[in-house]
From TrEMBL:
PANTHER family linked: ABC TRANSPORTER ATP-BINDING PROTEIN ALBC-RELATED (PTHR42939:SF1)
MF (Gene Ontology): ATP binding; ATP hydrolysis activity
Record's protein name: ABC transporter ATP-binding protein
Gene3D superfamilies, alphabetized: P-loop containing nucleotide triphosphate hydrolases
Keywords: ATP-binding, Nucleotide-binding, Transport
Cross-referenced Pfam families: ABC_tran (PF00005)
Span of domain ABC transporter: 5-230
InterPro entries, per the entry: AAA+_ATPase, ABC_transporter-like_ATP-bd, ABC_Transporter_VariousFunc, P-loop_NTPase
Origin superkingdom: Bacteria
Length: 298
């Protein structure tokens, strides 16, 4: 599987604080990838490095086959919509489209104007007068009309109301289907990731805890509930993600590629949110101690 984004031992330090450290990551091409993790995991720093907005302190990063933002050709390969969906308040929508055409050699003006028309926006309207959802749609239009190989979206709907968020995600899915984009979408909302993405990466403390096709991850993670027992007695192929115990009962979240045949367990399916939260809430030392046993899905 080819990678549209690859990081090796990647790090970014601000004075004495590391915002990202020793990050190894492969993002597959041709997929809509959800990047999730707790605050401080390094998601925004990673995406800013990928877009060329930041430069690494350590390690390497490649995007679409080359270092980010190393020339006009490389810049043209990546579209970026930042968390605050930046637009210029004093400029009209038409001004934004003209600016996009000036700055991007592959600019598709027909696509941009068609999207603006379908959204019901007035080309003469100033960006500062738009609603949050409309500004987000304008930023998405600018990113798509650039005709990039990779579209990076850093929490693009974080500040939107539920209706505007749903409309944005629906438009994103339609654009991906129509223009065959590779996408990396960072979000705190697993429901948005599940709706729009087909691949997920969970990043905690700069480390990839699990990555893979969403359907595959859901299929191979299970909740086991049964009489209290030592988790070390599980078969070797059942990797424990989390474990909890009462006086009489043990509950495990496990990853396994084979069926669980032990009749003493009640086996329950898990949704993507359950799986993501399990990896996000594990103690940091437990994650590091067990990483060799957790095969990261590629």
């Amino acid at each position: 599987m080819s990678a549209v984004l690859r990081a090796q031992a990647l790090g970014k330090r601000y004075k004495q604080r590391w915002a990202l450290q020793n990050c190894d990551l492969d993002v597959p091409a041709g997929r809509v990838v959800g990047l999730v993790g707790p605050n401080g995991a390094g998601k925004s720093t990673l995406l800013n490095l990928a877009s060329g907005m930041l430069t690494p302190t350590a390690g390497t990063i490649e995007v679409c086959g080359g270092p980010p933002a190393t020339g006009p050709a490389q810049l043209a390969k990546v579209g970026f919509v930042a968390q605050d969906t930046p637009t210029y308040a004093a400029l009209s929508i038409a001004d934004h489209l003209r600016l996009g055409a000036r700055l991007n050699p592959g600019w598709d003006d027909v696509l941009a104007r068609d999207r603006i028309r379908r959204l019901g926006l007035d080309l003469k309207q100033k960006a500062g007068k738009l609603s949050g959802g409309q500004r987000a749609q304008l930023a998405l239009t600018l990113g798509i009309a650039k005709r990039p190989e990779l579209l990076i979206l850093d929490e693009p709907v974080a500040a939107l109301d539920p209706l505007a968020r749903r409309e944005f995600m629906q438009d994103l899915m339609e654009a991906v289907a129509e223009h065959e984009l590779s996408v990396v979408l960072s979000s705190h909302l697993v429901s948005d990731v599940e709706r729009a993405c087909d691949y997920v990466i969970v990043l905690v403390d700069s480390l990839v805890q699990v990555a893979g096709d969403i359907d595959d991850l859901v299929a191979c993670h299970h909740r086991l509930t049964g009489p209290r027992r030592d988790p070390d007695t599980l078969p070797a192929g059942q990797h424990i993600i989390t474990a909890s115990h009462t006086e009489r009962q043990t509950t495990l979240l496990v990853r396994t590629d084979t069926a669980v045949h032990d009749p003493s367990w009640t086996v329950s399916p898990l949704g993507l949110e359950d799986i993501v939260l399990a990896y996000m809430t594990r103690p940091a030392d437990a994650v590091r101690d067990t990483r060799p046993a957790l095969e990261v899905l590629r």
